[in-house]
């Protein structure tokens, strides 16, 4: 059955995951490029082709199951064994891809999808055949096989009793790997759980994942250092209905066909070298053990992958580890195998990613010989089926591929357009806000101090600009808003003063009026008037009395005369009567006069009262005026104080501005310096890397020469051979030293990069905070310097950091590439490989002697250097002591200086309150002269103050 069509090489797919949070936080750049439309991956100058590439610009990860694993599930039903291997460094996404993690990938992972497909298919075939499914889940940790489902059976019985809970692993005998007589590998002593439903199988996966041993390493604290193998065994009993030729009814004695196939789903341990995990002690030991499994896997792969070796029938070291032993069927055996190489796109993982890709690339060359357990189908039929399957797969790939490509392109376009749109919007906003500022300033300048309403509106306008969510130069908006505030305040003050003045004027006017009114009263001497009137009335009274007396007398006389009644008397009587009449009239007159006088007196009284009221009013107005004046005074004082504090603030701000300017200059210098250093370092690294590349290439060609030499029968025992061997050894040593140098630089560079990225992250956070209107928390995480940077300086620093990160990233990838190359060579040379071409004892002895000389020489040089270092250290110690001393002196001086400054401040403050006290001046001067003999800044400010 070993026809060519049955041979199929291991299919290798690459899964590139996106950058994850940690890597983003470290400022990693992507260094993996996927060729569009081709399953090609590129890192630096290295390019690889695989069967499929998923993620990061390749096919979508969701297509992986359909393209890589679904055919294997179908194959299971035809009796083909299958294996899916997830390979890659820790944190590259193996567990995620397989779906053996507890939280992630349980829906999208391959195993859950396998289970779905399996049960769907069983459902459609159930009426044609009988099925039996078993699952086992084991893990290989430190070269020991652990049964992950052991607890399942126990927990089942426990839950049956109604006591759910955690179950400890029972003390069963260790699981052993056995090979049956027909070469089938079995695990003796592992739990095989019979499952009937999808839910039962999923429960097994979950339970096993839970009990899987995990440990934390540098790369990924959830990752595992163990290989986990989830195995599904499918047994089928197919009834073959042989139709009897005579009656055409199905024969009751049916043939039965039995198939049994296994699907291994393997989540391998992290492929990184032990030293990269940064763990020691026990961890390192585990690391080495894991490496043993993966190392053996690598050797198996390379033995199987080398066409020549395979033809020569070179021994494949399956037995070197439990892993390879268990996977013997899957690699170069009776299995269809898919390897999924998981890689991270981050530059810091470039070396490991390259190693993974090289490893996976070798695996592509492995030829498997999958066979169906029962061979009833003719080979032609099988050929046709195979073809059909291929065609179907291709069709599937084509159908899925074309539109998704288009969508990808369109998506890219949309993203680009959106980004451009955003940029333009931002620009527009910026211009708008700037225009608004200019306009506002313009109108204000024209109109001068206006009403409150106006200034309020202005303020609000600026606030709305401030609080708007688009970015605006912070410094500008800040300065403006405070300026506006100031102007508004001044207007407010002016306006207030104005209204107050007006009020005061009004009061004054009223007062004047009242006072003039009062004056009208004030001109008349009321007492004299009263006196005058009184006298007048008395006089009138007197006159009246006299007139009445006269009248009485006249009346009496008339009576007398009437009694005497003579002619003369008649005449006299008449005269008297006339007189009397005149007198009567006079009395009447007097009476009238008197009445009018009384009336006048009354009026006088009234006007007196009015005057009194007026007086009171004047008093109250005067009081109001005093109050108002006080208020004005108070306000003026407040304003003066505010103005003074404002000026002080302004002065401070100016000072701060100068400080900021200074900081900015310092930062710029720092940026420049750091960039230069980085540039120098990367250049040095580039030179070392280039040298390593040259050495490696030179060795490749010399190795070829040597191999030619050694296969031929030339026995050049003479001088020339000795020389060439020595040259070769020198070369080897130089390569080794160079690898060390590059690795050292690589590590240093990664540290630098991490530090740069750290700073960048913080700066971006601060930026974000200030964009959202929060003031950055000063001194948080000890990064006060970073959070106190002005926005402009921050932007500059961010740009500079990004620039440096880019530079560093490129250098890292380049170094990683050469290191991976060197490691590859080293791997090939380990063991006998290095000395393969040493055929003669004489050569070996000569070389050994040469090596001895080199070693002795090196030791001596080392000793010399040690001595030198010791001397230099002593010098350094002296210098450090000196430095400490001068630092102490400096501190003392700074302390003195501070004291002086304090004294000056106190002096200035008191001089301000007793400004014109010459005595005080003298005192202060003396104080200053005494404490600060020469201090230009102080004396200048002093003059200004004066
Ligand atoms: P490994 O098993 O190789 O150590 P994990 O599967 O645990 O790696 O993945 C490491 C981290 O990367 C996890 O947090 C996981 O969520 C994330 N991750 C891996 N692959 C992807 C992917 N294709 N898409 C998104 N995140 C992924
Ligand atoms: Mg994992």
Fill in the keyword field for this structure.
946 residues, alpha/beta, Kinesin, nine-stranded mixed sheet, three-stranded antiparallel sheet, 21 helices, 16 strands, 10% strand, binds adenosine-5'-diphosphate, binds magnesium ion, microtubule motor activity, motor protein, microtubule
Quick structural overview:
Residues 9-366 form the Kinesin motor domain. By secondary structure, the chain is of the alpha/beta class.
Topology (elements, then pairings):
Layout: E1 8-9, E2 11-16, H1 21-25, E3 32-34, E4 40-43, E5 46-49, E6 52-54, H2 63-77, E7 82-87, H3 94-98, H4 110-125, E8 129-141, E9 144-147, H5 150-160, E10 176-179, E11 185-188, E12 193-195, H6 198-210, E13 227-240, E14 255-267, H7 282-305, H8 307-312, H9 322-326, E15 336-343, H10 350-363, E16 367-368, H11 379-447, H12 452-467, H13 474-523, H14 526-564, H15 567-711, H16 719-771, H17 784-787, H18 791-829, H19 841-913, H20 918-931, H21 936-945
Parallel strand pairs: 2-6, 2-15, 7-14, 7-15
Antiparallel strand pairs: 1-16, 3-4, 4-5, 8-9, 8-12, 8-13, 10-11, 13-14
This protein binds adenosine-5'-diphosphate and magnesium ion (MG).
Give an account of the 3D structure.
This protein is of the alpha/beta class. Among the domains are: 11-150 and 177-240 and 255-364, Kinesin motor domain (Kinesin); 526-672; 841-872. 66% of the residues lie in helices and 10% in strands. The strands form four sheets. Strands 2, 6, 7, 8, 9, 12, 13, 14 and 15 form a nine-stranded mixed sheet that branches. Helix 10 packs parallel to helix 18. Mean pLDDT is 76; it is low at 1-6, 152-170, 213-223, 242-253, 276-290, 443-479, 707-717 and 932-946. Bound molecules: adenosine-5'-diphosphate and magnesium ion. Adenosine-5'-diphosphate binds at residues 17-18, 20, 55, 61, 88, 90-96, 101, 104, 220, 222-223, 270, 342. Residues 704-720 have a biased composition (Polar residues). Residues 497-698, 869-896 form a coiled coil. InterPro entries: Kinesin-like_fam, Kinesin_motor_CS, Kinesin_motor_dom, Kinesin_motor_dom_sf, P-loop_NTPase. Homodimer.
